[in-house]
Specification:
Layout: E1 2-5, H1 6-22, H2 26-38, H3 42-61, E2 71-79, E3 82-85, H4 89-103, E4 128-134, E5 139-146, H5 148-151, E6 155-159, H6 164-179, E7 187-195, H7 197-207, H8 219-233, E8 248-258, E9 263-270, E10 277-280
Parallel strand pairs: 1-3, 2-4, 7-8
Antiparallel strand pairs: 2-5, 5-10, 6-9, 7-9
Helix pairs in contact: 1-4, 2-3
Length: 281
């Protein structure tokens, strides 16, 4: 049994959230540069140039790339041969978030309860933690500070199996079209298909951790991703919703087994500040 101190987990969480908020992934930056060169709209080109410049400044000066520094979402793959010692696992995660958002001067955006007082917790905790027990003696941690301009545009639909691929396509395109400029395009479209309500939502969120230049391992879903990206970019919403051929940078689909009577689909949209970082302990 390998022992890992809770403090080590806290330190890794802190560094990951600072990195994710300050430094855009090379996959996103490279894709933005590529799409800026291909964009036909002068306004769209200008917007993409400004986004790229913003990301470079944020990285160089270690400041937040977006004023919405997101809800702290954490995915943990915990090896079953690991023993957490000298502290509480969940509190270690929350303390890491707390220190990152305080020391990094990142906006605190979490309220204690959603309906009545909506009082800010003042440290961006508690984090949303998704834990999976896996073989081995390592801890893999992936974080994403999820902004809510795009999160608010996310949707769920319980389709019937008879709706098939065209029903799924229609729902996804309709969701992006209705979102329009609200999720700060160009966007990354995360899609979860199958499972149950909560499983579809979970894998849709997790799909956003995948590199925008990486397609699904299943050739059928990879082709569907490419088709959807083409269809979405034909909508003409464009960068910042000001028109153009760059509405989305990528479509990432994850799928899961589901019930014979169901076809759950979740669309989880992420803005161009598709922030995530990961590490292994």
């Amino acid at each position: 049994m390998r022992k890992v101190k809770a403090e080590q987990i806290k330190d890794v969480i802190k560094e990951l959230f600072l990195k994710a908020n300050f430094v855009i992934g090379t996959d996103i930056l490279d894709m933005l540069i590529k799409r800026q060169k291909e964009e036909k709209s002068p306004t769209g080109k200008a917007v993409l140039s400004q986004i790229i410049e913003n990301d470079v400044i944020a990285s160089d000066e270690k400041i937040a790339m977006c004023q919405d520094t997101g809800y702290a979402v954490v995915f943990v793959e915990l090896g079953q041969e690991v023993l957490i010692v000298d502290g509480d696992f969940n509190e270690a995660i929350n303390q890491g978030v707390r220190e990152a958002y305080e020391e990094g001067y990142l906006r605190k955006s979490v309220v204690e309860e959603p309906l009545f007082e909506r009082k800010n917790t003042k440290d961006n905790t508690p984090a949303i933690v998704h834990l999976e027990i896996v073989p081995g003696d390592k801890i893999k941690i992936a974080v994403t500070p999820k902004g809510f301009g795009s999160e608010n545009m996310s949707t769920l639909k319980m389709l019937k199996p008879a709706d098939g691929i065209e029903g799924v396509r229609e729902f996804i395109i309709e969701t992006v079209e209705k979102a329009g400029p609200n999720p700060c395009p160009p966007i990354v479209v995360g899609i979860g298909i199958g499972g149950t309500v909560e499983k579809a939502a979970l894998i849709a969120k997790k799909s956003l951790l995948r590199s925008v230049d990486e397609r699904n391992n299943d050739d059928r879903y990879a082709r569907f991703e490419e088709e959807l990206l083409e269809d979405i970019n034909k909508l003409g919403i464009g960068p910042a919703g000001l028109g153009g051929i760059t509405t989305a940078l990528a479509v990432n689909i994850e799928f899961a087994p589901t019930h014979i009577a169901g076809l759950p689909v979740v669309v989880n949209i992420c803005c161009h500040a598709a922030r995530h970082a990961e590490a292994t302990i």
